[in-house]
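Please decode residue identities from the backbone states below.
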């Protein structure tokens, strides 16, 4: 039934929200949504989903051949999808609207050293643009020589009752090999469809195709389908891992559902399994954070949302937004510009351009954010 999951007092504001979506163009982050759909978490925290299974991230370095490492990268990537796209449903009952980060907002975290989990992994996130919202991140396991750098933005549209989100941005994973060489992987991101809006209980389905192109020539092509395709199940995927042109090896085909398990089609062996416990990022307590760090910055708003005190949440959100507006005005008056702390912007990412050519990436070039090696863990 329409609006089934919407609290009675918010049904009419949910209906207005849905109506406004139909004619909406721009970024959803700036749209006003009813309180029941608000999340107390800022989008700057989302890059942590890349490493909630740090042992799989670390295991990439243990692959003895480029083929083994390409499969390890795919296994780690597929294993991140459950966290990235279903964890709000698990923790809060449905997908929610995250807090829209301010320019310069920071999020630092670690997965502490633990031999079973593959050593310490660190995370640095910076909100590098407010309009449109763009988040840059860097995740590193120094002992293993593995680094992931990327940025993420979204273009949203509305079609057939669903919100369609095109992810703009990409990630680059580098692996320092014992030979002294560096292997690179260009990772593109899937398209999302936000379904379940009519009932007031949104959830994500992944759509179309994403790629992981290795500098060694191995390419993973990942096709996403929902109910009614391949296996007829939600969250289905099929990944084909093809060798470089000069290698005659039969491609690997992996099929399954990304939020549970998958199998290698040839051997029937389990490929990935995310039914086991994950490890959430460790963050220092709020009183040890700077005023730019997410959980301290949004503390009042998040508390209001969690406790159902939406008036105080809205008041604190306005305070933060007014401060930001004032900052931008002061910068304009002084003829200065906000300086990023950990990343610098480049108009074209050379890794995207070089590796993207191998699978005819669309677009052919993308901008990038280069990490300045000045995070709290470096
Ligand atoms: C689309 C989305 C904001 C962006 C979120 C991203 C794409 C961010 C990068 C992460 O790596 C993966 C990721 C996962 C989220 O599923 C996705 C969010 C889902 C909803 C949110 C919209 C801006 C809010 C829409 C409002 C609805 C729920 C009413």
């Amino acid at each position: 039934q329409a609006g089934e999951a919407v609290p009675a007092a918010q049904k009419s504001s949910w209906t207005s929200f849905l109506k406004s979506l139909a004619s909406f163009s721009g970024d959803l982050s700036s749209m006003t949504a009813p309180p029941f759909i608000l999340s107390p978490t800022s989008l700057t925290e989302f890059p942590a989903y890349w490493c909630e299974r740090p042992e799989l991230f670390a295991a990439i370095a243990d692959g003895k051949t480029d083929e083994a490492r390409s499969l390890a990268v795919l296994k780690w990537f597929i294993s991140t999808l459950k966290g990235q796209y279903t964890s709000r449903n698990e923790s809060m009952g449905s997908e929610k609207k995250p807090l829209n980060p301010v320019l310069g907002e920071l999020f630092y975290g670690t997965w502490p050293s633990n031999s079973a989990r593959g050593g310490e992994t660190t995370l640095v996130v910076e909100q590098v643009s407010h309009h449109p919202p763009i988040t840059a991140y860097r995740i590193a396991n120094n002992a293993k020589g593995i680094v992931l750098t990327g940025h993420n933005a979204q273009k949203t549209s509305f079609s057939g009752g669903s919100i369609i989100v095109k992810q703009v941005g990409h990630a680059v994973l580098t692996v320092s090999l014992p030979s002294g060489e560096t292997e690179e992987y260009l990772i593109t991101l899937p398209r999302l469809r936000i379904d379940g809006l009519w009932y007031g209980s949104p959830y994500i389905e992944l759509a179309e195709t994403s790629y992981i192109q290795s500098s060694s020539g191995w390419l993973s092509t990942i096709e996403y389908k929902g109910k009614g395709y391949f296996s007829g199940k939600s969250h289905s995927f099929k990944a084909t891992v093809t060798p470089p042109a000069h290698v005659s090896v039969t491609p690997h085909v992996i099929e399954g559902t990304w939020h549970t398990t998958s199998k290698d089609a040839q051997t029937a062996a389990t490929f990935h399994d995310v039914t086991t416990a994950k490890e959430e990022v460790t963050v220092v307590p709020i009183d040890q954070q700077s005023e730019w760090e997410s959980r301290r910055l949004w503390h009042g708003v998040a508390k209001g949302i969690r406790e159902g005190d939406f008036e105080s949440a809205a008041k604190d959100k306005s305070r933060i937004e007014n401060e930001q507006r004032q900052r931008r005005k002061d910068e304009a008056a002084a003829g200065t510009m906000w300086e990023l702390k950990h990343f610098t912007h480049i108009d074209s990412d050379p890794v995207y351009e070089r590796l993207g050519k191998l699978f005819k990436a669309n677009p052919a070039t993308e901008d990038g954010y280069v990490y300045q090696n000045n995070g709290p863990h470096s």
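Observation: The CA atoms of residues 217 and 244 lie 4 Å apart.
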